[in-house]
């Protein structure tokens, strides 16, 4: 892919924009012109990415700047003249932004598509938009928004598509944060048993050692999918589930430090009193546990009911 090829697609985008402006009516443009714009924009993105691969990010800075400028001008054009092209333009922009790790531009593009409905575009573009919007929300540490977008995407992706698996992976982690566990059959169907079976087991039964082993074992997988920090947040859910089991088994709202420490030791995890206080304080701060810490008595006092919650992600 050459610079000349990328410039050719840039010119094709300009031509497509002129056709959109000339043929739009009340924000809708005939499908043949909309398709030409969508295809040209996608090819511009792909050619830009190929050049970045060859030249490196530093060596292609001018090319990246030109492409970003094109998208800024495109945004106003499609919003005004061709609502039925907005999703596809934004989806292509997200594809580029995610590849280049340029996230400062995303909010403008997200807000431009919030008023649109799926009938404004093809199903593939609709899914592409919501997938990238969801992953962007994860990067911005907004898991509740990510869950909404990724769920919307997967609802319209065929189950036998590779994109279904790609979208399912972050959704599994997001649901684990809420105490919701996928069926084993779902993992088997999409070849995710190796990465998730023991991780889910560790979260369910509160096995901190198994959790630590699994996250270390599959670190490269989770980093590749942009999920490592989100998976790390599951550690508090592991503690939450174990401590919840301890309270239920003891059937009391006054729990000695030693009760939690003994439960951890069953799975081979040693924990000092100071470490335990820090863990519990963090869980209280995150809204996963309600309790008072009595350092002098080496005890936690929990409410009689509803002492434990999951991430609300508000």
From TrEMBL:
Single GO BP term: post-transcriptional tethering of RNA polymerase II gene DNA at nuclear periphery
Segments forming domain PCI: 216-300
Gene Ontology MF terms: double-stranded DNA binding; RNA binding
InterPro entries for the chain: Csn12-like, PCI_dom, WH-like_DNA-bd_sf
GO (cellular component) term, any one: transcription export complex 2
Protein name (Swiss-Prot/TrEMBL): Pci domain containing protein
Natural source organism: Entamoeba histolytica
């Amino acid at each position: 892919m050459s610079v000349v090829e990328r410039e050719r697609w840039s010119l094709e985008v300009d031509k497509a924009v002129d056709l959109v402006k000339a043929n739009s009516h009340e924000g809708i443009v005939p499908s043949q012109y909309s398709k030409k714009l969508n295809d040209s924009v996608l090819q511009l993105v792909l050619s830009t990415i190929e050049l970045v691969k060859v030249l490196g990010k530093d060596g292609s800075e001018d090319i990246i700047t030109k492409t970003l400028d094109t998208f800024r001008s495109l945004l106003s054009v499609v919003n005004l003249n061709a609502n039925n092209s907005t999703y596809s333009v934004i989806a292509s922009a997200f594809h580029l932004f995610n590849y280049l790790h340029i996230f400062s531009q995303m909010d403008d593009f997200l807000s431009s598509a919030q008023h649109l409905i799926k009938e404004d575009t093809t199903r593939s573009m609709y899914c592409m938009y919501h997938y990238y919007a969801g992953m962007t929300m994860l990067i911005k540490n907004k898991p509740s928004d990510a869950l909404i977008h990724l769920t919307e995407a997967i609802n319209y992706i065929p189950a036998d598509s590779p994109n279904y698996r790609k979208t399912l992976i972050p959704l599994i982690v997001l649901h684990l944060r809420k105490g919701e566990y996928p069926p084993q059959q779902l993992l088997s169907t999409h070849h995710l048993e190796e990465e998730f079976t023991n991780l889910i087991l560790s979260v369910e039964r509160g096995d901190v050692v198994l959790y630590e082993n699994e996250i270390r074992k599959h670190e490269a997988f989770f980093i590749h999918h942009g999920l490592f920090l989100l998976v790390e947040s599951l550690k508090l859910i592991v503690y939450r589930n174990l401590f919840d089991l301890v309270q239920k088994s003891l059937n009391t709202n006054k729990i000695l430090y030693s009760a939690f420490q003994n439960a951890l030791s069953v799975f081979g995890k040693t924990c000092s009193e100071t470490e335990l206080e820090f863990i519990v304080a963090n869980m209280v701060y995150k809204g996963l546990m309600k309790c008072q810490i009595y350092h002098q008595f080496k005890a936690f006092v929990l409410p009689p009911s509803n002492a434990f919650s999951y991430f609300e992600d508000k």
